[in-house]
Design brief:
Keywords: Disulfide bond, Signal. Helix content is 1%, strand content 50%. By secondary structure, it is mostly beta strands.
């Protein structure tokens, strides 16, 4: 049978090093118990690798993140098997904790946004404490942020933009799976092109850290899908005829001179056109001969 030990993994900072603690709740009716704590990590999908095992009288077990057997980016689990000291050959059923991801997480893990100018909050979370031996006054993790556009037909023009090029994670008491957190805003670029839905990746890389635990670690990218939206078009053509963005307004302007064709009421944007005589001998006709956009 099972003892309902309910093992749970929590992170702790001990003597300047990051540890994971597996805690379980022994039943009070069975005081003379011992426990076998087995630590394992997910080495590949569906496969686990044993990294540590110990037999203890305590209702907890520790493992240190040494960047060799246990690294940032690993998903770790703890399996506890109890047995009575008087009958060590008889074990209760082993009980396994939920997987604990040790490293940097983005919330949400992926984004689906549209070319509508709206900002979307992306939270960067460290699930483990940040250790800075000898650097108590400036203890933090700096993450350099970058984006990569996959399959964009506009070379050099990003599909997404960020509110910051880097974020800083400063230590905080670990609570509800977070030991440090920061936010960055993500916005889809309105490119006025019918280029279909696009996929971009947001990448974060720790910089300026000399310790082995962080310097060899790169968090998992965030997938950002940008939904393409149709864009309005306005026209000024021939002598000149003007059609507005909604397609309903149609005007003629046969005059010669420089005119304000379009101005935004919500941002600094306007277009000027210059019209010059291009008509015949019978009637004066104006044509576009220059354009300037701010």
């Amino acid at each position: 049978t099972s003892l309902s030990l309910h093992p749970v993994i929590t992170p702790e900072l001990m003597q300047g090093r990051v540890h994971l603690k597996c805690t379980y709740s022994p039943p009070p009716s069975k005081p003379a118990l011992q426990y076998v704590g087995l630590w394992s990590r997910l080495s590949s999908p569906g496969k686990r690798e044993k990294i540590h095992q110990e037999t203890t009288l305590e209702s907890f077990s520790y493992i240190v993140m040494d960047s060799t057997n246990l690294r940032l980016g690993d998903t770790v689990s703890c399996t506890v098997t109890a047995f009575a000291r008087a009958t060590p050959e008889q074990h209760w059923l082993p009980e396994e904790s939920k997987g604990f991801y040790a490293g940097i997480k983005f919330l949400p893990e992926s984004l689906q946004i549209a070319e509508d100018g709206k900002e979307h909050v992306l939270t960067v979370v460290s699930t483990v404490p940040i250790a800075c031996p000898g650097q108590a006054d400036s203890c933090k993790i700096t993450l350099q942020l970058s984006t990569e556009d996959l399959g964009s037909s506009f070379a050099g023009f990003p599909d997404i933009v960020l509110s910051a090029c880097q974020v800083e994670l400063e230590p905080a008491p670990c609570s509800e799976g977070s030991c440090a957190a920061a936010m960055v805003m993500v916005t889809a670029v309105t490119d006025f092109a019918q280029d279909g839905d696009r996929v971009s990746h947001l990448r974060a890389e720790p910089v300026g850290r000399g310790d082995l635990l962080w310097s060899t670690y790169t968090p998992k990218d965030v997938k950002v899908t940008v939904r393409d939206l149709p864009t309005g078009n306005c026209y000024s053509f021939t002598d000149p005829h003007i059609i507005t963005f909604d397609g309903w307004g149609r005007y003629d302007n046969y005059k010669i001179g420089t005119f304000l064709l379009c101005r935004s009421v919500s941002r600094v944007f306007e277009v000027h056109v210059r019209q010059w005589d291009c008509g015949g001998h019978r009637a004066a006709t104006a044509c576009n001969c220059g354009v300037a956009a701010q």
